[in-house]
Specification:
The chain is α+β, with helices and mostly antiparallel strands. The protein has a domain at 6-79: Roll (Flavocytochrome B2, Chain A, domain 1). The chain has helices at residues 9-13, 43-48, 55-61, 65-71, 96-100, 108-124, and strands spanning 6-7, 16-17, 20-25, 28-31, 75-79. It has a five-stranded mixed sheet with strand order 1-5-4-3-2. It is globular and about 45 Å long. Belongs to the cytochrome b5 family. GO terms for molecular function: heme binding; metal ion binding. It is a single-pass membrane protein. Its main location: endoplasmic reticulum.
């Protein structure tokens, strides 16, 4: 039996579009492209974490043993270092009171930080 293929987080991060969706769960890389239409929770939840580590979301849902066995069908290798980057979290809109006070720009700070972090992450790979 040969060693499993190893993928970098940058390689995994390239697979985020419908028809080419990879995810990482517990350090293992899965090509779930052909599972999108069959996922009981809908394809959107899979696309939200495409190209990133989905372990937390996978475990939070409490998948059955059958789901865990089915996952093995899509296994393609391991992620280098055992964990991929966490999926980008959507930024929340500014709270209503700030909007009533003339449209505060406090929401721009976390957006700018997230953008800078994403750029730095890709440049350091």
């Amino acid at each position: 039996m040969s060693a499993p293929k190893t993928f970098t987080t940058a390689e995994v991060a390239k697979h985020t579009q419908r028809g080419d969706v990879w995810t990482v769960i517990h350090g293992k890389v899965y090509d779930i492209s052909k599972f999108l239409d069959d996922h009981p929770g809908g394809e959107e939840v899979l696309l939200e974490t495409a190209g990133a580590d989905s372990t937390e979301g996978f475990e939070d849902v409490g998948h059955s043993e059958d789901a865990r066995e089915l996952l093995q069908k899509y296994y393609i290798g391991e992620v280098e270092g055992g964990k991929a980057a966490a999926p980008a979290k959507p930024t929340a809109a500014a709270p209503a009171p700030a909007q009533e006070q003339g449209g505060s720009f406090f929401w721009a700070i976390p957006v700018a930080i997230a953008a800078i972090a994403a750029i730095a992450y890709t440049q350091l790979q």
